[in-house]
Amino acid sequence: MVQVRRAAAALLCFVLLFCCCFEAAAEKKSESIPASFASKKELKVSGPEIVAKGKKITLKANQEVTWKTGDKEIATVSEDGVVKGIKAGTVKITAVTKSKPKAKKVLVITVMPKAVKEITITAPYKKLDLDEKKTVQLSASASPAAAAQVFKWTSSNKSVAKVNSKGKVTAVGEGKAKITAEAVDGSRKKASIKITVKNKTPEEKEKEQILRIESGVTRIRDGAYDGNQKLREVELPESVTSVGHKAFANTAIRFVYVPAGVTAIEEDAFSGSPNLACLTPKGSYAAEWCEAHGVKWHEPTYLTGLSPVKTALVKNGAKLKIKAGVQPVISKAKPNWTSSDEKIFTVDGGGNIFGNYPGQAVLTVSSQDGTVTAKVTVTVQANYRAVLFSESTFEDSVIQRNRGDVRLMKGMLASVTGPDGGTYQVSSYDDLTATKVYDKISQLLVSPSRDGDVSLFFFASHGDYRSTTEQYAGRLWCKNKKTWLELPTLAQKLAKIKGKVIVLLESCGPGAALHDFSADAAAAMASTEQEDAPDFTGEILSIFSSADPGLSVYQPKEVNTKKNSKKDSTKSSKAKGTRFQTSKFIVMTAAAYREMSYMYGGDTKNLFPYWLVQGVGSSGSMPADGNKDGKLTVNELYKYVYKKTVYKQTPQVYPKNSDYVLFLRK
């Protein structure tokens, strides 16, 4: 038993000893982890190294640190790294990491006796370009003189101009940028200067490289342009008679026009300019001199090339001058101009083109002998005009929805173009009499129109959906229902407009514009022997008066008596059908013949214009564009509006299934 106890005790001691050793080893291992895995990230401290007396600056570190100042009488530092200047001098600010192993950084801070009160920036020039003047050195000064003369430079638009730490600005792209110099002493004072970057136009570049000496000069003085590397062409005036020593020596000049009146040229006038050639008349003194001295020369009409614009856009009926881009620029050549299709545009001998009809044709510019040619693609763009009318007063009250329709249409037209990219010129009017409406049609649509133009007529008002004669059916009420537009007369007025005419009618019964009254007449004559139906006019008017105020005020005679109804049928038997159904017109109406139209969402807009505008949208793809080709056709817009409004009213369209493109997104 004693031996067993001794064995057990020995075993217990061994176990305890093993556990203690293991625990000690583990403890030792855990103590070594922070040291072996300590952060190896280098301590970095940043911030201004200057602070004014009484001002503050902030220093930053990339690790948690403790900040210390070497002399509190010169500057103090907070636990957040905020340094405050106490008196002029220099002081060491130390940052010590809180983690192990310890690391520290020391910054020497200068405390200035005075703070910056004002900064002035000076620049030799403020306009840069991406060619020659690509950089500019700015300088800044601070007052008082005892303040720090160190600044932080920044640019408001680095895509236009960038600036380095020394104030040197470099152009990057066209536009404007504000360059700012800010004091770093904690005073927060700053100053700015605007820099403009603009590429030189061809005209500006030409002006710098082409010299046309003014008339009256008789002699080009000795060494006048000796060594000039900027000029490329020089045109001497007809008054010049002599050219002096080295007048054009050692230059990069390519061409000099020398008039026939020159009678003296010094031997070395063009020396050291191997690429120079004279443009001078055959048989002139200058031509003979060039032959004798080995200098190239050509007739004044000499051409090396033509460089007009590649494309040009002109409005239908407008003029545009095209520059031939004659090379050399001082050449006296007069190129030929021709149009590939004079139906589209014509051109005169001076390069002035006139737009005759929308479309595209080619302008050819050529030398007299045809050896040098250039082509310009010319697009003649249609004029797009829109006139929008609304009738909004009735019985001394204002009906907002018709005005709201005009606002919707104006917004929509501002977001689209015609099929060739032309934009609409929009005019709008409210509460005009019929006479004034016709005057506006004549003034704004008929007078300026040309074949190929597009005009849009929109009218939102009450409409006569009760009348059955061609003359009165669907008439559009004007200004407090005291006058009206009769659809046949309206069609005659609009038919005078040259080009395509788009007609959009928001009212009750506007489908009369597309109704076949000759068919009605035939049907009426076939039933003349039948007994007249009872007259329910009064009851019908009372039912619909809330939807169309004014029916109770004005009741056309043809809907009041059976006798007049028969008379109307006789009149309509002479009708030849609608005047809107011609190739000139595209017509879309809010409702059918003798059908009412309805407002949408209260007295702010009507159902038809609302969905018409929704179909076009204001940006991006057009919801009514069924095939998503970016071109909204008559048929696509009509199908969209029909689907959205047929539950209340039946919109009408002419022509049906038309692929005529109304709009593109702007």
Pick out its properties.
5-stranded parallel beta sheet; 6-stranded mixed beta sheet; 666 residues; 5 domains; Leucine-rich repeat, LRR (right-handed beta-alpha superhelix); Immunoglobulin-like; 48 strands; 11 helices; alpha/beta
Can you put this structure into words, describing what you see?
This protein has 5 domains: 68 residues, Sandwich (Immunoglobulin-like); 83 residues, Sandwich (Immunoglobulin-like), CATH 2.60.40.1080; 96 residues, Ribonuclease Inhibitor (Leucine-rich repeat, LRR (right-handed beta-alpha superhelix), Alpha-Beta Horseshoe); 77 residues, Immunoglobulin-like, CATH 2.60.40.1080; 219 residues, 3-Layer(aba) Sandwich (Rossmann fold), CATH 3.40.50. About 12% of the residues have low confidence. The strands form 15 sheets. Strands 40-36-41-44-45-47 form a 6-stranded mixed β-sheet, sandwiched between helices. Strands 19-21-23-25-26 form a 5-stranded parallel β-sheet. A 4-stranded mixed β-sheet has the order 2-9-8-5, with no helix packed on it. It contains 11 helices and 48 strands. Helix 10 crosses helix 11. By secondary structure, it is α/β, with parallel strands linked by helices.
